[in-house]
Amino acid sequence: MAVTGCSQCIKYMLFFLNFIFWLAGGVILGVALWLRHDSQTSHLLMQQFEGNQAPGTFHISVYVLIAIGAVMMFVGFLGCYGAIQESQCLLGTFFTCLVILFACEVAAGLWGFINRDTISTELINFYDAAYIKAVDPVDSPSRQAASKVLMAFHDSLDCCGKGDENQLFTAVQASLCPKKKFPLDHLNSQSCHTKLRDLFTEKLHIIGLAALVIAVIMVFEMIFTMVLCCAIRNAPAY
Q: How confident is the model at residue 211 (pLDDT cuts 50, 70, 90)?
């Protein structure tokens, strides 16, 4: 044990922060897996209409989160081991990884903020394409497929229609919204557009809060790592 005094305190604080960082990586990995297998979103994103799959931007974002969680767990372990062993090489590698992760997190945060409405907008457009075909008075295989897509949305989100009073939709709403009581109160019934926006806004808030907490931890870890490396370099034993 080469470092003493305040440097030794920083060493154990860095170990503690790295342990929290490792746990945070595990939490992110767990949340990402939950988002990936969440029955509500998965059921919607598995829908197909006229050969087109529902937009998969959400799943791409979740896969990125899974990768980030796994990398964070590895980097957290590296930091814990480097701090306990007082290894400048391991701490330097850990610091480099932290800088790269922090830059990636900032870039991902900016991309997410700019494209925060992309996922819900893509699904709304997919819903509207099926909606137009489902209210078509002419019966066809395409209309039947569109009706199945709409029923999946209505069952998963507990909504009915787009919130308008379209006469064509009114004629078929009993079959497309089996959980609703009729006559339907359009003023009090929440539209599927609103439900879709609320669904993904809520999940993005969870991701954003987790990213903010982790960014703060990473800043403190980078500071403590630099201080500890300097203390180890200046220690008499080295």
A: confident
